[in-house]
Amino acid sequence: MKQTIIVALILTTTAAWAQNPIGKIAFGSCGHQLGEQFIWTNIVAENPDLWIWLGDNIYGDTEDMEVLRRKYNQLGDNFNYQLLKEKCPVIATWDDHDYGVNDGGKEYPMRAESQKVFLEFFEEPAGSPRWNREGVYTSYDYGEGENTVKVVLLDCRYHRDARGTDGDVLGEEQWQWLKEEFQNSTAKVVLVGTGYQFLSDKHPFETWGHFPTERERMLKLIAETGVKGVIFISGDRHFAEISKLERDDLPYPIYDFTSSGLTHANNIMFEKNPLRVHRYLRRNFGKFEFDWQEGSVTLNAHRLSGKIAFSETIRFQDLGW
């Protein structure tokens, strides 16, 4: 009886939290499970209402699921990461290294087994459709009425064709699911999480730009469904960056906010990005701060110390409203 009461209390508290207007959403990627992870204390100090993992949540790189579990547990046992879990809910998608193979796609032979390990570690509820899907894609809604944020987490690994083929990224089932998510959305802001960058494509590293047909399909889907408030969030690159695309055939400017390098960064990247608005080349985490009265959201990239490296405020009316 005592256990039943505790579970009911947790569910009631979680449901009530999800209905309150969300203030801050923090996110990041590329966190090695070993070594110091002091950045978590500065993330916790920002008092986020939610943490989003965008991939490379660990560096697994294996076909041995016991090795993968052990590496996840090394993250889970980290004291500073435990502080974050006590502070706010944690949701996640994956990228290549936690998926199991560098730059991997549908050719990875252990993708179904890896998905099970992923869902176990992130404590996916037993009734979640993620247990029965091919891929870890999912969505969440926070707040209610005029003060709602939708988070859509894509799986850009499970069904992805090889680079250089201009093949599929999401798989047809996920594409149809995403179409319905967009069509049914009434959220003021829709954060679309993808492991690697959506807009920047003038570099040799992984990007939706290597699948130009798929990227155009996504942009066309935004226009055709009439979904408002879409902002992409991405990881992978080991630096922070905001890119912005404006085109006559798009209903509003499309932003891609990259945050990568929780435990390690690459500060010698000089590739061109004509869509770049901001960039910061050291360890960082990203944060969205919502001002519901003013009708805006501010995108902040935070340094390892917690101080802001760059900031961009976007009005809701500039996102199709």
Describe the structure.
With 321 residues, the chain is an alpha/beta fold. Residues 1-17 have low confidence and may be disordered. The N and C termini lie far apart (48 Å). The protein has a single domain (23-319), classed as Alkaline phosphatase D (PhoD) (Purple Acid Phosphatase, chain A, domain 2). It has helices at 2-19, 39-45, 65-76, 79-87, 96-99, 111-121, 172-183, 212-225, and strands spanning 24-28, 50-53, 90-92, 138-142, 149-153, 189-194, 230-234, 240-245, 254-258, 276-280, 284-291, 296-303, 308-315. The chain is 27% helix and 23% strand.
How would the global form be characterised?
globular
Radius of gyration, whole Å = 19 Å
Helix count equals: 8
Which topology does CATH recognise? Purple Acid Phosphatase, chain A, domain 2
Highest CATH level, the class: Alpha Beta
Q: Largest beta sheet: what is the strand line-up?
A: 4-5-6-7-9-8-10
The fraction of residues assigned to DSSP E strands is 15-25%
**How many runs of DSSP E, i.e. beta strands?**
13
Average pLDDT number: 94
Largest sheet: 7 strands, mixed
Low-confidence stretches: 1-17
Can you describe this structure in just a few lines?
The chain has 321 residues and is an alpha/beta fold.
How is the topology of this model organized?
Elements: H1 2-19, E1 24-28, H2 39-45, E2 50-53, H3 65-76, H4 79-87, E3 90-92, H5 96-99, H6 111-121, E4 138-142, E5 149-153, H7 172-183, E6 189-194, H8 212-225, E7 230-234, E8 240-245, E9 254-258, E10 276-280, E11 284-291, E12 296-303, E13 308-315
Parallel strand pairs: 1-2, 2-3, 5-6, 6-7, 7-9
Antiparallel strand pairs: 1-11, 4-5, 8-9, 8-10, 11-12, 12-13
Helix pairs in contact: 2-4, 3-6
